[in-house]
Write a structure and sequence with these properties.
Pyruvate binds at residues 57, 213. Keywords: Amino-acid biosynthesis, Cytoplasm, Diaminopimelate biosynthesis, Lyase, Lysine biosynthesis, Schiff base. This is 4-hydroxy-tetrahydrodipicolinate synthase. The chain is an alpha/beta fold. The protein has a domain at 16-222: Aldolase class I (TIM Barrel, Alpha-Beta Barrel). It contains 12 helices and 8 strands. It has an 8-stranded parallel beta barrel with strand order 1-2-3-4-5-6-7-8, surrounded by 6 helices. It is globular and about 45 Å long. The relative contact order is 0.14. Residues 1-10 have low confidence and may be disordered. It binds the ligand O=C(O)C1=N[C@H](C(=O)O)C[C@H](O)C1. Residues 20, 52, 55-57, 147, 150, 175, 196, 198, 213-215, 258 line the site of ligand LZUJQKHR.
Length: 301
């Protein structure tokens, strides 16, 4: 991990659009740092409120320890230059290993995006204990990454609200895959919710979400930032218009397992040098990439 302790910023609840950066690889499969730097500068120049690394979109679970360290160090330096927060993905199935990851990666993070323990399907009480233990072990605020369709663990609204009230938890990245009853309760009663499903970002913002972490913002950062700004400023017509345009782009970008289409679009646009993804992800079909590029053009981006 990068050397030195990074001091987290005051008032840690994130707002606005935070971009979960893809991790660019060269045609030889190696980490491509210049492309990562170019993309990070691009999204921040276009209005992103912060960077997120080692999340799902960043293929964080498919990187080596050295690569993770390089990605964190690179984006830490860029975030410091812009004065924007850096969120780092950490966490796995078990509490002890999650603590190790959080302590290790937390030295360079303003926030840790910490996934709900997956696969083992613990009780809601077990999940509360898991986050309390991680929070007690690190001095960095946690963003709970709630994504039941990937983890296999659905949390009740009551538990999500308890998590938000937990010391050290700054917010929840909420990816329920729908506006369900628990999501409505969470937004009605909780502060610090970030939308994590690109297609649902607009309704979540209208219901009070503080911002979003959306993979599609890698390719259209300005439009996502503009939509969040329009909701914040009460310009409902502009926000809805942007949502309707972005929705077809989002659907095209997620037509195949993410981030394969996103990376191909970024490579076509010269923002990263190569579209390579790591196995078991596969390159997307040409038709999916063409469709996404067409949608992007309709945005004027
Ligand atoms: O990388 C992320 O963070 C995101 N994850 C969601 C997913 O896992 O599908 C989607 C979201 O756009 C960003």
């Amino acid at each position: 991990m990068p050397r030195g302790i990074h001091v987290p910023k005051e008032g840690s609840m994130p707002r606005g659009i935070h971009v979960p950066l893809v991790t660019p690889f060269g045609s030889d499969g190696a980490l491509d740092v210049p492309s990562l730097e170019r993309l990070a500068h691009h999204v921040l120049n276009e209005g992103a409120a912060g960077l997120v690394v080692l999340a799902t979109t960043g293929e964080g679970a498919l990187l080596t320890a050295d690569e993770r360290s390089t990605v964190i160090g690179t984006c830490r330096r860029i975030s410091d230059a812009y004065g924007t927060p850096l969120t780092v993905g950490a966490g796995t199935i078990g509490t002890d290993e999650s603590i190790r990851q959080a302590v290790d990666r937390g030295v360079a993070a303003d926030l840790l995006l910490t996934v709900v323990p997956y696969y083992v399907r613990p009780t809601d009480e077990g999940v509360l204990d898991h986050f309390a233990a991680i929070g007690a072990a690190v001095g960095v605020p946690l963003l709970v990454y709630n994504i039941p369709y990937r983890t296999g663990k659905t949390l009740r609204a009551e538990t999500l609200l308890k998590l938000l009230a937990t010391e050290h938890v700054a917010g929840i990245k909420h990816c329920a895959g729908a506006i369900d009853a628990d999501t409505l309760t969470l937004l009605a009663e909780g502060q610090g919710v970030l939308g994590g499903d690109d297609a649902y970002l607009y309704p979540l913002l209208q219901l009070g979400a503080a911002g979003g972490i959306t993979a599609s913002a890698n390719v259209a950062p300005a439009a996502f930032a503009a939509m969040a700004d329009a909701v914040r400023d009460g310009d409902a017509a502009r926000a809805l218009d942007l949502h309707n345009t972005l929705l077809s782009l989002v659907n095209a970008l997620f037509a195949e397992p993410s981030p394969s289409v996103i990376k191909a679009v970024l490579a076509e646009r010269g923002l990263i040098a190569d579209a390579a993804v790591r196995s078991p992800l596969r390159p997307p079909s040409a038709a999916s990439v063409t469709a996404a590029l067409d949608r992007l053009r309709t945005l004027g981006a």
